[in-house]
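Researcher: Please predict.
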Amino acid sequence: MRVLVQKCSNAKVSFQGEARSILKGLVLFVGFTEGDGQEKIEVMARKVANLRIFEDDAGIMNRSLLDEGGSVLSISQFTLYGDATHGNRPSYIKAMKSEEAKVLYQLFNQELAKYVPVTSGFFGEDMVVELVNLGPTTIWLEK
């Protein structure tokens, strides 16, 4: 399981005229591979909720999303498992098949929602994602 985390002041995802958005919080780009399951989802949800990447009064990244009271915009992204080491066209063979990944993506969002408000993107669709990255702060998590 891979999650690319971006701290944002606001973010929006759109698909065919429907939009979903958040204010201050985290945008998560989420991908799955074979062997991912409930245990990894639970660990990753806790890690995201407790990831200390928001500044405290001293300007130190010492506060989590739980401390800040922000929310998450979760975007499914199988391309996180793209591999371009052998040529110019990435291979996505390590990405989990769509049907299985959709189930895990929904489970991940449900698990994360136990900690913080979660807005999800449109699984498997060609979405438009807009965000204002704060910092910029981008963190790569893998389990």
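Model: The chain has three helices and eight strands.
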